[in-house]
Amino acid sequence: MVVSLPFEKSKKLICSCQNLLVYTKPKIRMVAQVIGLMVSSLPAISNGEIYYRILEIEKINALKVAEGDYEQTMCLSKQARQDLLWWCANLEASSRSLVELLPSVTLQTDASLLGWGAVLRDVSTGGRWNEVESKHHINYLELKAALFGLQALCVDVHNEHVRIEMDNTTAVAYVNSKGGSKSPLCNSIAREISLWCIEHNITLSASHIPGVSNHSADRESRVFDDKTEWALNKSLFNELSDIFGHPDIDMFASRLNKQINKYVAWKPDPQAFAIDAFSIPWSNFT
Fold first, then answer.
1. What is the pLDDT of residue 256?
2. Do the bridges between strand 123-128 and strand 115-120 make them parallel or antiparallel, or are there none, so unpaired?
3. Which terminus of the chain has fewer Cβ atoms in its 10 Å neighbourhood, N or C?
4. Is-above-0.85 flag for pTM?
5. Whole-angstrom Cα distance, residue 35 to residue 51?
6. What gap in Å lies between CA 218 and CA 108, rounded to an integer?
7. Do you know which InterPro entries this protein is assigned to (predicted)?
């Protein structure tokens, strides 16, 4: 059973979005009115939550600058305008199912200030944060761990309901709400998670578990074999590549020590082209 917007309500929202796109600097009140129409339509619009958060965040920030004056104008970012176009293009055909698949895959993820960890059935993986990532708030890192867990362990999962078990209530809320307006950074990761799941036709939900029940993922986020994380000096690698030719792929690497973007990891990795260099043919690469 599915629900969809009545034609008149759908048409009103589309016209409102199109009208807003005409303005270079619309009034904050006009943006707020469009957001109100979007929010009221969410029960009937699949994934609509993803595509109004940036507009909401920009409205909140503009209202702070304007000291609460809704008659002041504001700028819309390129992403906000693209999201308005999504509403215009998808609203008429969109609906929302009232019946949801029961969870069939359970993924446990965790984060520490050192790294991330994920466990799916009897397979676990994890790794350190890079220098930039490690400076973020733990709520952001918990969401990043969920994203990496999905990318590393659920890449072959399709048409399933994946339940992520996490011990951070803020991260659980952001996953289930497909974003949030309080933290733009957390919203950006929640959006990335949602879009990845749409691409893989995965229904996603999250639930909270006590930290003591998340020990395997927790261990992966704290215990590392740093002996495997070494690499040639980047300038030396570039010099050798100029002499012997530029490789297509880094066959023995990880997210942190890869020399080029396409690489093969030795264990499940969120960005790897493949896992285990000895399990794939090398003849297609240089």
1. 87
2. antiparallel
3. N
4. yes
5. 10
6. 9
7. Hepadnavirus_pol/RT, RNaseH-like_sf, RNaseH_sf
